[in-house]
Amino acid sequence: MKAILTITTVALGLTGAAQAGSYTPPVIEAPVLVNSGAFAGPSWTGFYAGAQMSYGDFSVNRDGVGDASGGIYGIHAGYNHQSPNGMVVGGEFTFDHSAAENDVWKVERLISLRGKVGMTHGNWLFYGLAGYAHVRTEGRADGAHGKSGGVVVGIGADRAINDKWALGGTWESYKFSNFKNDTSDAEVDGGTIKFRASYRF
């Protein structure tokens, strides 16, 4: 009987304390989200450099002369600036050694200086490019021979795989004429599919 009275007294005391406002309910805090370390997306602003491998096919305006095709590889370096709205503008220099050839002529070297304009989407950068290109070829008299300046245009996409490295590819179209050592008005058109890796500083 005494035990029942004691329990009743304690319960009534707690109830009175709660009604009097002296009881403070426990505060349940929101869970804290811990960063898992996943890559959240890059800023493309800054200098970068890397290497590329391509497959190219080039034609010359000569009857009976086939296309020069083959592997192309080289290096690139450039600078990008990203605006707050995700637009990216930049410039890039490329140097490529070419093994595109046939039994008449070959493309030995490609150099370009191009501008880039694009937009970001998550870890991706999609862009267009255009600029000046220079080619060196070797061939018989019935093929293109010498050096020429021309143009390059294309489209590309790069994907940032972490805060330093990006992998991507481009499709590029080249056009050359007025070869220095050629007096037969040779014109060379070509295209490349390029895969590239870049390191952002």
Beta-strand percentage range: over 45%
Cα radius of gyration in angstroms: 33 Å
Task: Provide the spatial order of strands within the biggest beta sheet.
Answer: 1-2-3-4-5-6-7-8
Global structural class: mainly beta
Question: In DSSP terms, counting alpha (H) and pi (I) runs of 4 or more, how many helices?
Answer: 1
Extract low-pLDDT stretches: 1-18, 33-38
The separation of the N and C termini measures 82 Å
Which outline best applies?
elongated
Task: Specify the helix fraction band.
Answer: under 10%
- Look at the structure and give the mean pLDDT: 85
Largest sheet: 8 strands, antiparallel, barrel
User: What is the H/E string?
Assistant: HEEEEEEEE
Q: What is the count of β-strands?
A: 8
